């Protein structure tokens, strides 16, 4: 029995289900999801989930390479959680950005764990 690409660590272990969402306007996010954000018409605000589970992640992609012109704004949900240790919005203003935020329950913080 070998290991296979596209499955969990060992064959027969399925990967968790991940929602993939195309975004063209302001939206409240759900956890463990990937968002392809289109800011060609203007800036878009993404609001993080309330009461996130430990380890929950959010992937954000600049679908049309416009974040430098029309920013993607990540808004804390208002439940007291922070983004990168700050209660302020996170503004993504780098074209072609790919950002992963992951929730740390111990810190009550969304941590940037990947930035490409």
Secondary-structure map:
Elements: E1 19-23, E2 27-28, E3 33-37, E4 44-47, E5 57-62, E6 72-75, E7 82-83, E8 90-92, E9 98-104, E10 109-115
Parallel strand pairs: 1-3, 2-4, 3-5, 4-6, 7-10
Antiparallel strand pairs: 5-9, 6-8, 9-10
List keywords for this structure.
mainly beta, 116 residues, six-stranded mixed sheet, disordered N terminus, Jelly Rolls, single chain
Oligomer: single chain
User: What is the class in the CATH system?
Assistant: Mainly Beta
Shape: globular
* β-sheet strand percentage: 35-45%
- Percent range for helical residues? under 10%
Describe the main β-sheet briefly. 6 strands, mixed
List low-pLDDT spans: 1-12
In the residues, how many domains can be counted? Answer: 1
Tell me the total number of β-strands: 10
First-residue to last-residue Cα separation: 35 Å
Helix/strand-derived category reads: mainly beta
Query: How would you write the strand order of the largest sheet?
Result: 1-3-5-9-10-7
């Amino acid at each position: 029995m070998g290991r296979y690409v596209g499955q969990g660590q060992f064959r027969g272990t399925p990967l968790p289900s991940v929602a993939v969402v195309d975004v063209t306007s302001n939206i409240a996010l759900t956890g463990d999801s990937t968002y392809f954000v289109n800011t060609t018409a203007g800036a878009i605000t993404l609001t993080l989930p309330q009461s996130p589970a430990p380890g929950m992640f959010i992937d954000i992609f600049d679908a049309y390479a416009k974040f430098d012109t029309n920013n993607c704004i990540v808004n804390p949900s208002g439940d007291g959680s922070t983004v990168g240790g700050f209660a302020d919005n996170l503004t993504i203003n780098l074209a072609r950005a790919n950002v992963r935020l992951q929730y740390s329950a111990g810190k009550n913080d969304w941590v940037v764990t990947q930035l490409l």
